[in-house]
Prior knowledge:
By secondary structure, the protein is of the alpha/beta class. The protein has six helices and 13 strands.
Amino acid sequence: MKILVAIKRVPDANTRVRPLADGSGVNIANTKMVLNPFCEIAVEEAIRFKERGIANEVVVVSIGASVVQEQLRSALALGADRAIHILSDIPLEPLGKAKVLANVVKQENPGLVLLGKQSIDGDHNQVGQMLAALCKYPLATFASQIELKGNEIWVTRELDVGLQTLALRLPAVVTTDLRLNEPRYPTMPNIMKARQKPLAIIPIAELAVDVEPRLRVFDYQAPAERKPGIKVGSVAELVEKLWQEAGVI
Length: 249
């Protein structure tokens, strides 16, 4: 079985990003960029499937400018077999990304498609759902456990009320959550090997996919500064402030 894993390049969660002065976008100049943590979990799960003999090939794909090849090489160093870079200098909306990935799915014909449940920059949590709809594949989101049983994939997902287990007929789309696994660190030999692994570059124009944006963002603003906390001398003073100042009791 071939597993296709979609990944994304995002700012490091430990860095602080700010809107541009004119509010037209987010300033990520000189910002450390990394593989999206949820995508890293998806890559790790695919590699574990291959190590158990369930999958025979792991292919990673990403959409973006030439810089995303850094994250594709990172995924190859973790253990993926080859990479596909859909070259696009224009940022795409979730629907556009789903359309492009659906085209890749059609060409690659994988038995399983894995994605992180969301990216930590846009936090849309939409691409996996849209991709499954476009491909007409069954979908399971927020996977905390994945198990192959015959020609089905059993996915345990976390809900507000507990756990739910779904049985999906393959091929299927699954989005991964934090508790699915703990990604490994790439070793130096694997980092060196990743440089020699195949990485195909496909200009987005060759796919003939309509990625015209449907949304227009008018302004980006930083969140309001939080007031510093204070210490109170007694429970009575705390209750007084909650009543008089905060108005919550």
